[in-house]
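#struct-help
A.M.: can someone run this one for me? Single chain, 79 residues.
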Amino acid sequence: MLYISGARLVGNEQVRIGSTKIDGIRPKKAIQVRYRLGISGNIKIKELTKYQINQIEQMIGQDHVVHWELKRGERAHIE
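D.P.: on it. Structure tokens below:
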């Protein structure tokens, strides 16, 4: 089991499927991130290196609102 941007990902899933569990990442965006980093579509999450995981987190952090920012925004909107 692995955590990326606050989302719990199952190690046996392919990266293209598992990364959609990250808040704000849909299938199209998951493909773009994977393509930009040069990660194969068939690789499983448990096969990612620490370097690849860090690259994914950095790219998601730069281009997207991360998990804790989404939750903060939801709470602020409710109050």
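A.M.: thanks! The first helix runs from residue 15 to 18.
D.P.: also worth noting: The chain has one domain: 2-78.
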